[in-house]
Amino acid sequence: MRTLTRHDVYEIVTLREDLEALAVRLGVPVRVPERLERCRAALAAFEEVGRAGDESRFLHHKFEFHLSLVALAGHSRLTEAYRALSFQMQLCMAMNRTARRESLLENVERHRELLAVVEAGDPEVAQRA
Predict the structure, then answer these.
(1) Dihedral sign (CA 69, 42, 125, 97)
(2) Cβ(96)–Cβ(66) under 8 Å?
């Protein structure tokens, strides 16, 4: 396994930002309530592992939450492109949380705020969040 370079991280983060921006443009405001329920369920699972202090499952559930947000777009190829980068994104997510010095629950709370913005339905505000 090779180490991620700064350029690797740059590529992963910029691609992630663009994929998520497209998902927000296509999916917010949410027009299919079941998709929003998937986001809520993913956040609940994410919070559960955070409360348990389960570092080994935390990144997986964090990624699943982000994937559920991307799925709001109802665009299967976008969702699959995002999923294809799962491992690389999880590595970058871990690096980001370490750099922020966030606890698991602080990280969950930040994502709860993100979901609230998405639920409010303003794509421009969601884009900034």
Answers:
(1) negative
(2) no
Q: In the chain, where do the E strands start and end?
A: none
Note the pLDDT tens digit of each residue in 85-95.
Answer: 999 999 998 88
The whole-angstrom separation of Cα 8 and Cα 26 is 27
Which amino acid, residue 123?
P
Helix axes 6-27, 76-84, angle to 10 degrees: 160
**Structure tokens that stand for 104 in this block:** 């698991």
pTM: 0.91
Q: Determine whether 72 is exposed, middle or buried from the number of CB atoms within 10 Å of its CB (0-12, 13-18, 19+).
A: buried
